[in-house]
User: What shape does this take?
Amino acid sequence: MKVSEYIKAKDLNEAYELLREDRKNYIIAGGAWLKLSVKSANKLVSLDALGLDKIVVLGDSIEIGALCTLGQIETNELIKQLYDGILVQAVSSIMGVNIRNIATIGGCVMGKFSFSDIFPVLEVMDTTLVFHKQGEVSLMDFLNNPKFEKDILVKIKIKNNLGKGFFKKVAITALDFSVINIACSKTDGLFSLSVGSTPYIASPCYKAMDYINCLSDINLESIKECANKVVEEIKFSSNNRASKEYREELAKVYISRGIKQVSNYEN
Ligand SMILES: Cc1cc2nc3c(=O)[nH]c(=O)nc-3n(C[C@H](O)[C@H](O)[C@H](O)COP(=O)(O)OP(=O)(O)OC[C@H]3O[C@@H](n4cnc5c(N)ncnc54)[C@H](O)[C@@H]3O)c2cc1C
Assistant: This one.
């Protein structure tokens, strides 16, 4: 990667102005993806001096600074408790310790990667993104807006909830991108379901959630019906990793297992 200038921003305003000044100026976090995807940059703007690498509890949320590495998240005792540790499970499934000690949660979110193992998990937890200029933005508003204005992600906020959680990544080899990934949660009696890497970016399964959350009780039939609804509403396709049909079968199997696990269903 060719870079004309490297600037360590003194504050968020400076970083924001530099980012907006030229389309060839980039924020650099871990740089793991940026260095692979961008051939040349005018200015690389580092946020290293801005203290965005902390994980703290504030009010009823856990706040994760955008510069926290996946390694920091993986070893954080609070995050291990959150929804049965599904964020830790998702993060631990990404590459090896060396990459996880470089790659940041901010880079994962801002990359909007279709293969992301983080998004399904963030989608089934109560997650808000906090930007420098635009302030608090819901995760889904960010993901669904292809014209989201250039901004600096400062932190992500997750409701500190001890709800139940399930995460599954299916990949051909341990270090590969997902063939599919699935997250489920249950909080205050309500299920939340998300499927990603289909190979499209993760999406909540709204119709399946509406269905299962209206039932007074679940049984094997209703779990099967819910899994079928997931396959009906989510778009699956084939690529060099897996066929559409294989992804659909995996989604049915792991959505069913996820629902059973988060509801302690035994049968
Ligand atoms: C070889 C390899 C394999 C991977 N495999 C997986 C995988 O299996 N599953 C998975 O989920 N992920 C995977 N990833 C992605 C990885 O987890 C990180 O998401 C990725 O490396 C980006 O993190 P980073 O900190 O290096 O960001 P960078 O590369 O520094 O930045 C990525 C993008 O985000 C922007 N950005 C970064 N931080 C901010 C901020 N605070 N505000 C605004 N913009 C910002 C940058 O300008 C850039 O456009 C892989 C990455 C690599 C390199």
In short: Residues 26-34, 36, 47, 66, 94-95, 99, 102-104, 106-108, 110-111, 113, 115-118, 152-153, 177 surround flavin-adenine dinucleotide (CB under 6 Å). The first strand starts at residue 2 and ends at 8.
